[in-house]
Cytochrome bc1 complex cytochrome b subunit (Janibacter melonis), 575 residues
Amino acid sequence: MSTTARPADALRAGDSPRSTSTSPGLKKVGGVAGWIDDRTGSAKGVGYLMKKVFPDHWSFMLGEIAMYSMIICLLTGVFLTLWYDPTHGEVIYDGSYVPLQGVEMSRAYASTLDISFDVKGGLLIRQIHHWAALLFIVSLSVHMLRVFFTGAFRKPREINWTIGCLLSMLALIEGFAGYSLPDDLLSGTGLRAAQGFMLSAPVIGSYLSYAVFGGGFPGEDIIPRLYSVHILLLPAILVALFTAHIVLVALQKHTQYPGPGRTNDNVVGFPVMPVYAAKAGGFFFIVFGALALISSLVQINAVWVHGPYDPNATTAGAQPDWYMGFADGALRLLPGWLEFTTFGYTWSLNVAIGALLLIPVMYGVMGAYPFIESWVTGDKREHHLLDRPRNRPVRTGIGMAGLTFYGVLLFAASNDIMAIKFHMSINDITHILRVLVFVGPIIAFWATKRICLALQRHDRETVLHGRETGRIVRGPGGDFHEVHEPLDPYTRWTLVQHDPATPLELESGVDANGVERKGAGKRKARAALSRFYYSGAVNPVTPAELEAAHHDGRSHEAIEPAQEQERRTVEAGER
């Protein structure tokens, strides 16, 4: 190749050297980041995420615990897949666990024993995996309760709430699939129950069971299929949903608890870098260390105690993992007369309702609730400030009713154990729980609503009169009264910042021409539900009321009875 200069080069002798453009990422963090930014343009997005502000409140860590638990499950699951054999082939066990030596068992169960006794650290990793799975479901459930009771599901976060419901439901299925993989007697009993649930499906039950198990029970296909579902299909869906959840959180303004300086238009907290990233990183290792400590000290899922699965045997007092207990309890409470025969077909609704319908219906109602509440209240605004549960007594009552319903079903899953331990009749326990599953939620709703209203009235009284000091003072006229300390503005703001209750007003059923409007019945039902939602609400103290309380006690005393009379009139009209 010639290096001789071309004649035309002399014409450009005075030109300045051409400079290459340097990306912002190259200037800030060095060559590697700049190289990536030049090819992906990611600096802008990363910069946005690094400046994202997160509020500082302990309850927001519940979602982080769920995320960290899922990550730990994925990491420990990769370790377990290196030694687990997901096949039904029969072998004679000759491993380290002496009581089972010489016993015929499946390769799946034998490999689980090998991980527990022959692989260094295998038992610890198995237990971390199991405890992390339980913590994932627990933290996800508690996180959803926090979101529900504080109203964090409202616009614009309805999609994120729906994603959370799907995550919670799929977590139950993922847990059951992993719980069934060891192929011990306890997990095999659970699989046998699952096959019975499939058979109870009307019309398609036998076909469904045959397709899932690859023939008659137990077959040789179910463990490999569950293994693929447990390590590939469901984890991929869970990670995708979790990623979508986190992306939506990053794109939207983060919710925050009400307080001075906090509005729907700002977020008071710390940016991701450097404060929040350091705290989140440390919190991950705290969660991991706590799980490692629990797994080292507390035994769980000791599969060697139960022995290999035998279709002709079962374990006495077998119980599912706690997260599936409510479905098992529903099966025990459903009456036998729900199984009947018509036209030569047997309808086992006493099994199908609890085993096949309960979970999707329950999570379907949960996913639809934000849209139902928005329709009932007519509230279409964006909400970035969280509610205090006491300020939404009906929603809080509905949540407690749901928890009571769930709790009764969960207790019902152990009706046989309770009968043995307390020397009671299992039939009496079942009858009591059948009554409680209907009456308990109603009582819980009523009691919770009354407690919330009482707390609202206490907040109102505190704002108007201040805190009780316990100091008695004698007045000029010889009377005695307690001195009340006025609230500081910051504390008062939290007690009065919520919106007053505004039920929907029923529109006229006819138009200007006297013609009946369409959907009149729907509007009446919506107005009635709106009045129910806001019934008995205690509105926050207004500036006029606060002024009257501070400057003229008698004016305040006149205001309070008038509002109480108005509230009683509204409640009487509803009745």
Remarks:
- The longest helix spans residues 426-465.
- Strands lie at 53-54, 90-92, 104-106, 270-271, 339-342, 345-348, 467-474, 480-485.
